[in-house]
Amino acid sequence: xxxxxxxxxxxxxxxxxxxxxxxxxxxxxxxxxxxxxxxxxxxxxxxxxxxxxxxxxxxxxxxxxxxxxxxxxxxxxxxxxxxxxxxxxxxxxxxxxxxxxxxxxxxxxxxxxxxxxxxxxxxxxxxxxxxxxxxxxxxxxxxxxxxxxxxxxxxx
Length: 156
Known about the structure:
mainly alpha
């Protein structure tokens, strides 16, 4: 039987401590076992708390397929992408994106990100107020577009 951590409320389950501080809640789970069953409202989930078991779950996708209520809701929101897709779609999707993660491409991405960061901070001057969230979002967007381009790195 998979243990449950204490503190579940009727109907809500572990939703309150999870929403209050998700990181603290998730970090508390390993003391209850390598696998822990939690309830977030109507959804029951099994959390893997052991490194070797995590590797096994991630590597043996035919056995541990992504499914159930939670992944269905995530797919409704985020789409059937590489992270959320079931095993039947995963290998095909992974082959599409694999060239983008070759080591030579990663070095090019770093060049693009450095160029965009210099572009951002090079325009600032002393005593200037900057909306950092907006500026970083714009810089991240520019970096993403530049790295997705087939000719990355693009000229500045």
